[in-house]
Amino acid sequence: MRLLSLTIDGFKSFAHKTTIKFEEGMTGIVGPNGSGKSNIIEAIRWVMGEQSARQLRGDKMADVIFNGSASRVPLNRALVSITFDNSDHYLASEFTELTVSRKLFRNGESEYLINGQKVRLKDIVDLFIDSGLGRESFSIISQGRIAAIFNGKPEDRRGIIEAVAGVAKYQKNKATAQRRLATTMDNLNRVSDIIHELA
Ligand code: ATP
């Protein structure tokens, strides 16, 4: 699995549709302060399902939409697409090439797509959860995160080790199963109350 390209259109400082192709080997992105290097990394986080506006240095999610400059009016929507070579099927999908896209309009409407097909956020999260690339993963280390990890609480650090070890998926499944079990217990209690009332 390899990152092939990233297309950013209307996201943060990228008012114009911009495609970055990643060749084999290492890619370095250089530019003056404030030229948008971090915005590129944030576009990657965002398209892979980031839900926290604060993690993207904003107050609300609509802050990621290009909000105008001296020479351009604000845009109405942000669109980011990321393409992976998945010929080794490292990502859990039968596709050999995968393009994941996320769109957000100012009215709050949003869309996620995999190879052009509308999907749920859950499908995006599930696609990346076991790959070490998910939104909580450590494949992207932002400025300040290393200090936060070292200064973090032991439970938080345990969470990091669990995420790296790949147990996050099972924790998520366990939490879902526990919620379902609790609902079923509530229903059972309700049924037993009704039976009691009828008896
Ligand atoms: P540094 O080297 O200082 O870390 P950088 O190259 O990483 O800088 P970024 O932080 O990615 O730069 O980009 C910051 C720029 O993006 C600022 O000029 C800011 O005004 C612009 N920007 C952020 N959000 C938006 C938005 N929604 N619309 C337009 N421009 C935006």
UniProtKB/TrEMBL annotation:
Q: Where in the cell is it found?
A: Cytoplasm
Which residues does ATP bind? 32-39
Which function does this protein serve?
Required for chromosome condensation and partitioning.
User: According to its UniProt record, which protein family does this protein belong to?
Assistant: Belongs to the SMC family.
Q: Fill in the domain comment.
A: Contains large globular domains required for ATP hydrolysis at each terminus and a third globular domain forming a flexible hinge near the middle of the molecule. These domains are separated by coiled-coil structures.
Q: How does it assemble?
A: Homodimer.
Q: What is this protein called?
A: Chromosome partition protein Smc
Question: What organism is this sequence from?
Answer: Limosilactobacillus panis
Taxon lineage: Bacteria, Bacillati, Bacillota, Bacilli, Lactobacillales
Q: Which gene specifies this protein's sequence?
A: smc
Which span of the parent protein is shown here? 1 to 199 of 1191
